[in-house]
Amino acid sequence: MPENQRIWCQCAAVCARRPGGGDLVALRTWYDHRRHRIQVQSLAEFLQGSSSDVPPAHSVRRDDEQFQPRAHKRRRQNQPSEEDYDDVPPLQPDPIVQDASMLSRQASPSPGLSHTRAGRDEVSGEVNEQLPDNVSAEPIQSAQPTEADEVFPEVTRKDMKNTLKYIELLRSATLGESGLDEEVLEQLQNPLCEELKLTNPDVTLAIEVYMASGNGSRETYNAVRDAIMRRFPDVKLLTHYKVKRTIEQLTGIVPLVHDMCINSCMAFTGPRELLTACPKCGQARYCPIRSEDTQTGRQQFSTILPGPQIQALYRSADTARDMTYLYDKCAEIIQRLQEGAGIAQYGDFPSGSLLLDAVARGIITKQDVVLLFSCDGAQLYRNKQSDCWIYVWVIANLGPDKRYKKKFILMGGVIPGPKPPDDLDSFFFPGFYHVSALMREGLHVWNAALESQALSRIFVAMGMADGPAMAGTQGTVGHHGARGCRIYCGLVGRHKPGCPHYYPALLKPVGVLPAGCDHGDVLLSSIGLPSSAEYNENLKLVISAESETQFRQLRRATGICKPSIFAGLSRIFPLPLGFPIDLMHLTGLNLPDLFMGLFRGVIKGSTQSDPKTWPCAVLQGPVWVEHGRRVERAMNFLPGFHNRPPRNIAEKISSGYKATEFQTYMYKYAPFMLRTVLGRPYWENLCKVARAVVILHQQDISQDELVESKQLLDGAVLEFEELYYARDPDRLHVVRPAIHNLWHTPDEIVRRGTLIGCTQYLIERVIGELGADIKQPSNPYANLSQRALRRCQFNSLKVMLPHLDRSHKESDLPRGALALGDGYALLRALDSCARTIPAIEMTAFARFLQTHPDLAIPQEQRNATFKIRKWARLRTPRQQVARSAWKECLKPLFKLRMARCVRFVEDGKTEVGEVRYFCQLGGEGQRWAVALVSVFDHPDLTLYEESFKTVELRTYQGDAALRVINVKTIKNVVGMVPEETPPEGDYMTDHKHLHVGSSYVVVEKMGFMLDVMTGLQDPEMDIDE
């Protein structure tokens, strides 16, 4: 830029006060005044989606004259021209955008990255955000791609303009223009003010038969209907068509069907609804063999609207009461904060600062509904391309014990394949338009608990997706870009010479560096939290680009490629604060893929050295093979509720190793199995990461634990770069975004509460369940859409009519169980009679009775021949089942998943013991359930501290440490994995399993409560002994 050339500035603090309302200033002065121009928020508020309900940080009231949204009206022309399709919505000029346009014309992208370049074309600013072949890591063949495999579609200036059109329509959404028929629209705006009741027994029977046939075909229903009507001629059951229509009328749940490109390029929705061909690939929209009067789309997708599903929830008195959980919990915490008590521990969403602030300011009220959005894609068939994308809405108002259950998950839409969708905005638009209309007009619900009608407003608190989907939804470049942080912090990445893939390295590499990557070492304390003000300002710069070259320069400099589709919603958190970190992909796939690539020496990307020669590459050859066997043999020492115990990692790592397997292996097994294999610095770094990850997966995290995780990650992130990257430009690729995102996680928990409740585990489970229901291989996508619709309708009926829910039980205990209160229960097997016990066990019972003199003991339990009647199992409040040696020792180790080791607390001390058996003591008026346990020795404290609390090694003491404990002191069922793997022959003949003098490592399942919240239960509950 010539020194004498100046830029027009209209900052409110200085230049706007001068004659003419502005002044021409030098570039440096324009930057200095930039903080004063941030106060103008007209376009920013529109793009951000904030309203007077949720103003962005540091914002002022929006001038309504700056932007007037157009009504969503259907066009009359048959086919819009390409010029009409690409027009940007007419926006009034904004001072900041004008400034940015002038800056763009001078080819200076952004203050923080004014000389950044990517790739080899410095003049044109061409950038390729794809991952080159020489930098990709060895893939792990799993259901999800790893970070190194993820591909982010390049977003063009045309795509950005199209997104602006969608946002404009969302900002003016109305229910009347949402495409609903009059009957459903009337039900939405004027719901029935009574609980649902079925008075016709024939209709009730037809619905029950239809629901019972579940995944069956139409022929199945008709066959049952005909059989019933032959046996009972007076019964008139509805036909298959009529019962479906009846359910639609009762629930109000019908699909919105839209055409889409046959190649999944885009959907014909919103501003593209009248196009007759795909503007990207040119494929025709309609089937050419049909007449023009009966045009049918060649491919269609379904959207299931959340409004009727929410209304159904409120028509049940029980569920309506449950819907107050979120607000009541927030109000309780706010009350404690006002009293100066503070937040003792971070748990569910109400403990996060974002939600607490919204409730405290009255943005979210007791009758409002808070939604979480989640989307993901999957391959329906293993051996052919069959991509299918699904998105759901999660009701945050419900407590965590109900929120993730199948009955309360709201299906949002099914996007067919076989190719992945290119333009997600066009597919999300129908569902988002409906939600936006409910935000603007409110949702009328009949609250059965209060027996009154209420107007509820929707608030979308989070948008959840994996890496590539999040980049498309969030409007950012993804983690391959210079500003590739998932939560949009200020860290600027670095790239290798000639390679456009950026990495979030803190330490400056040595040698000659590409321009824009030669900045000095970055202190972790200097990385700021995501700012909506910075995001808005950078977004304006990108929107102001006047050519494709300038757009690519600004995209690279700011990390933003387009506004987010969420910007069209008026009731959200300020962008980009609504997009959390996904712990499932981060800790279950990305981090294990990184560390295993380093430990095995197979991470790709280096040209100057062979990774197999690096000091960390210890898992090779016979060591790797033997390590895999050790992992496999540990399986028998894990309880059955480890539904995915790690298999032989040496054999299975490339054939579908699951995220839960990786988590158990990487953060539970690896710290002790690699202790004598890895070098000391590498092992300590691994232990720090493992300890932090274990803390971050807890359902409740104390303040001290959160601080501990943050301190561990502060050290681990820097150590990781010093050990593995060592400022070597050739090794820059090992500093993957997973390490950086993990460092952000403790701060995210402060803002959102624990992140275990907003991972992609939920949507993965939904996809798996729906995929298993496919019964029509010839057209799986249409069949999947129908299954999703039927699931929504059935769930709504089960909520409104609980007697239709066959999974609902008065008691979840199996036959013969004995409830003990507080969530505990004794489960069979039960000994046939009371039997005399050995003297060493009698001594343990005598000590227990001496410490509990108030316990009423019957005469037969006071004699020298002490008799008890044994129970085999115990259910804990965590829905785990503890077994006992009484029954487990009847089986050899290879037939067993040992579940008799428990963690219990007595006199404030935490102990681990092997349960020998359970029994009851006392008379009729006072009976205690107790357990005879063999207590393990105290842990090796030196190793425990050196491993940063990841390796808890205890020695088995056998009969020498017998103790009787109250079963209500048992807190958890744990696995006890031997430090030294037993010989293979012992697995076939060993009936003792635990041996005196041997050392065992305590292994607890990570994220077990998420299994409980989603409805999964310990398989032991299904066993009737």
Distance between the termini: 83 Å
Radius of gyration: 31 Å
* Structure classification: alpha+beta
The fraction of residues in strands falls at: 5-15%
Percent of residues in helices comes to 25-40%
Low confidence ranges:
38-144
How large is the count of helical segments?
33
**Order of strands in the sheet with the most strands?**
24-27-26-21-22-23-25
Q: Could you say which overall geometry the principal axes of the C-alpha atoms support?
A: globular
Largest sheet: 7 strands, antiparallel
Overall mean pLDDT score?
Answer: 83
Number of E-state strands: 27
Describe the protein's architecture and organization.
With 1025 residues, the protein is α+β, with helices and mostly antiparallel strands. Among the domains are: 7-138 and 153-165 and 476-568, no CATH class; 818-1022, SH3 type barrels. It contains 33 helices and 27 strands. The strands form eight sheets. A seven-stranded antiparallel beta sheet has the order 24-27-26-21-22-23-25, with helices on both faces. A six-stranded mixed beta sheet has the order 3-4-8-7-6-11, sandwiched between helices. The chain has a four-stranded antiparallel beta sheet with strand order 15-16-19-20. β9 and β10 form a beta hairpin.
